[in-house]
What we know:
There is one protein chain. By secondary structure, this protein is an alpha/beta fold. The strands form 4 sheets. The chain has a 7-stranded mixed β-sheet with strand order 1-4-5-15-10-11-14, sandwiched between helices. A 4-stranded parallel β-sheet has the order 8-7-6-9, sandwiched between helices. It has helices spanning 51-58, 68-74, 86-92, 113-125, 139-151, 161-166, 168-176, 190-198, 206-219, 232-251, 267-281, 298-301, 344-351, 362-376, 382-401, 419-430, and strands at residues 5-6, 16-18, 63-65, 82-84, 97-102, 130-135, 154-160, 180-184, 223-226, 258-262, 287-293, 303-308, 317-322, 356-360, 406-411. It has a domain at 5-13 and 67-109 and 232-430: Rossmann fold, CATH 3.40.50. It is built from 16 helices and 15 strands. Residues 110, 136-137, 139-140, 229, 262-269, 336-337, 381, 383-384, 412-413 line the site of pyridoxal-5'-phosphate.
Amino acid sequence: MKQTKYLLDESQLPKNYYNIIPDLPSPPPPPLDPATREPLDPGKLAAIFPMGLIEQEVSGQSEIPIPEPVREAYSLFRPTPLIRAHRLERALNTPAHIYYKNEGVSPAGSHKPNTAIAQAYFNVREGIHKLVTETGAGQWGSALSLAGTFFDIEVLVYMVKISYQQKPYRKSMVQTYGATIHPSPSERTESGRAILAKTPDSPGSLGIAISEAVEEALHDNKAKYALGSVLNHVLLHQTVIGQEALRQMKMAGEYPDVVIGCHGGGSNFAGLAFPFLRDKAAGKPVRAVAAEPVSCPTLTKGEYRYDLGDTAGFTPLMKMYTLGHDFVPPAIHAGGLRYHGAAPLVSQLLHEKLIEAVAYGQDDIFPAAMLFARTEGIIPAPESAHAIKAAIVEAERAREEGQAKVILFNLSGHGNFDMGAYDAFLASTLGGNGKE
Ligand SMILES: Cc1ncc(COP(=O)(O)O)c(C=O)c1O
């Protein structure tokens, strides 16, 4: 029988995070203070982040140790499996070998606990017992709420209103983990009230929810803020994914020609890709592809320039691909990919042409998700379905070229709480347009 699962045991959980910064061709452009447009003094971030995370944000060290309590919490679900998608390969009739890293096995259902747990730990270590955050699809909010229960932290979540309505069970999950959740924009903050005054039926956006969360954290000196993507330290925490995948690909006796992740703020893509890009910097010819939605085409259509990370202007200016900080994307089902900006590190790599970006519409990604569910059995998060679509495109190209390419993608989460989105897709396709 052909091998399907490549599993590591707990002793093989990475001991360090991999920091890509020292391996970049040039130093990353610094974040700027929005008031002066001068490089930001990292100390200023102390109002919203603990020092342990600020140090990681600016670290030039290649390997950053993972504290034991974090590794212990990770061991509930890490190392995650690497799966060879034999059945998908057969359905595509492709000579390509397709592998996926299944981050959907975490208790919250996505890769987000990799950083939530680390962030909770570094806050508690500095005596912080309250965290405020935003969430798009609800994955990050539920992950931070989970981490809150592990480390005795009160968690307050602002959830983008459209997702709050589309995904009521994510809200229940956050509450089950003992956290509090509000739809955003809300009347609770000045930033929320300003948006509602202008656009009473605003569906919300990550940019707005970030403003509300930062504002609340700034007004409560016992609380800090936590971000689920974009920043260097978040990407750093996610590199456990790629480090494990490197070992697992070795067990499979293969090395990927291409690694793929969906892209919202950049964290799951970076988490898988960065450890492989270290090999690329050393001469390996591996490609890395970030897959985003056409309705929020930050990497493929955005501009590479300094912009704010949120709508109201509480965050530093970061050099990144951006659609503009007041861009409110259409209410697509992949709520986790509705961010106007992109991680500065991912942006820099794209600008330097070390990675590639592609964009797909909902019409592309739901059929890909269906095929995946019907072959591999897992119902993917709509966000992850962008990576699946990109992997299928690569596998079909391999078939046309008659090449046994090795494709690795990140299944960033399962879609068991996204059945509303699947219902909508099924209703439209079953509704008589001949597709089903
Ligand atoms: C399952 C899933 N995948 C991907 C993302 C996108 O985030 P990132 O680009 O930071 O990985 C999200 C965000 O909420 C998500 O929930």
